[in-house]
TrEMBL record:
This is MATH domain-containing protein. InterPro entries: MATH/TRAF_dom, TRAF-like. Residues 31-67 form the MATH domain. It comes from Callosobruchus maculatus (Southern cowpea weevil).
Length: 67
C-alpha cells in the first residue's frame, strides 16, 4: 500500500480553512486459492454424510490471515 501527499489546492477565500495536505491511498488486492489432495481418505473416522472439519491455517506469524 502506498500513500502519497500532494499540495492542497489554493484557497477560494482568505478566511476559508484549508487542509495542509491531501492524501490518497493505493490498495493492491491479491486473491489466491489452494488445492490439495487428501491421502488415505478411507481411514477417515467420520461416518458417511457427516461433516469433516479442517484445522485453521494461517500465513506464518501473521495471525490476521486465517482460513
Amino acid at each position: 500500500m502506498a500513500v502519497s501527499r500532494v499540495p492542497s489546492p489554493p484557497p477560494q477565500e482568505v478566511n476559508t480553512p484549508v487542509a495542509e495536505n491531501w492524501c490518497y491511498t493505493q490498495v493492491k488486492v491479491v486473491k489466491f486459492s489452494y488445492m490439495w489432495t487428501i491421502n488415505n481418505f478411507s481411514f477417515c473416522r467420520e461416518e458417511m454424510g457427516e461433516v469433516l472439519k479442517s484445522s485453521t491455517f494461517s500465513a506464518g506469524a501473521n495471525d490476521k490471515l486465517k482460513w
